[in-house]
Design goal:
Layout: E1 2-6, H1 7-10, E2 23-27, H2 30-65, H3 73-79, E3 81-82, E4 88-92, E5 97-101, H4 104-121, H5 128-131, H6 137-154, H7 183-200, H8 202-208, H9 213-220, H10 226-237, H11 239-243, E6 250-251, E7 259-262
Antiparallel strand pairs: 1-2, 3-4, 4-5, 5-7, 6-7
Helix pairs in contact: 4-10, 6-7
Length: about 260
Amino acid sequence: MKVQKNVKEILEGKDIRESVLPLVEEDISDEEYEKNEKEWEEIGKSEREGYEEAERMEQPLNQILTDFDSEDHEAIKNSFETEDSGDQGTFKTDEGEYRWFKDYDTAERIAVNRVREDLDDQPEMFNQDWLMNHINEDRYWDDVESDINNWVYESPESYTGFIDNEAPEMDEDDDESYEGYSEDQVERMFQGYFADLKQQGVLEWLKELGYDGEELSKQITPYLDTNEAAQDAVDMDGVGHFLAYYDGDLYEPQGHDVVYVREN
């Protein structure tokens, strides 16, 4: 088969120098022709991916350059990188190292994820009073209700204040009594005590029990809504606070989508 094939057609009209697009004209078999066509298609695919990568990097790079003096441009261009996700990357100047994000929403999402991971791994590093705003207290009380009930039934004399110090209604030796108190009396003790604890709040009660620091965090973490808490932390302190290790600031070039932080 005599074929004449312009590789530029295989590349779908991409702007590629003619010097790398030779015309091929020779006698080849159908099998050889198909093999060559696949090779040309692979070349085209590689070239297109290269163009796409260059275009993906060009937009945030140009936006970032508008926020820096011209003497920093060469260092930024030479160090500019895009991570696999395509929505963030890094660059450097002579003074520091930076991380860029394609837009504010991307930076916020990454900041929230970072806070969520910290909450899962080291909840004790956060203000415990603030954490309590994101604790499911109803679920906590449901889980401990049975234990508290047992405490009252085992030592009713310690909870008589919740029934106005009523005297025991039964003989202590009665098998149906609880140290002389009737089941009705003990149940009212429990209900009064439990209501008092719930009004007091989980945090204060755990502190009364002696929990503090890491041990306190272990008690409340299973009841923490980390998604809600992470978003609240970022809303309160700002995206830059959790992403910018150097100064805590988020930089937003005027009139552009890209944002960046200084990490070092």
